[in-house]
Amino acid sequence: MGFSIALIVFSLLLMLLVLMHKGKGGGLSDMFGGGMQSSVGGSSVAERNLDRITVVVGLLWFACIVVLGLLMKLDS
Q: Which of 10, 17, 60, 67 could form a disulfide with 54 if both were Cys (CB 3.0 to 4.6 A apart)?
């Protein structure tokens, strides 16, 4: 039960984080300083941190799916 709730929370959080990434036309990450850089430079600190957080949440989401799959297999 706990992993199911965690999977729902991580799914919603991952969806929010992906939507915050800047695409071709900008994104919600501009609110956190992502739009204050020049177009020639690399990604800003806010974008890099958003990338890191998204990867961590994605890995936790994947781990929840694996654990739920194993639990369902063991219950059968």
A: 17
Q: For residues 49 and 29, what is the distance between their CA atoms, to the nearest angstrom?
A: 10
Among 21-25, 44-48, 64-68, 70-74, which is the least confidently predicted range?
21-25
Residue 60 · residue 3 · CB < 8 Å: no
pLDDT attached to residue 65: 96
CB 32 within 8 A of CB 46: yes
Cα–Cα distances (Å) from 54 to 11, 13, 22, 75, in that order, read 11, 9, 13, 31
- The residue whose two tokens read 């991952």 is 14
The pTM for the full model equals: 0.72
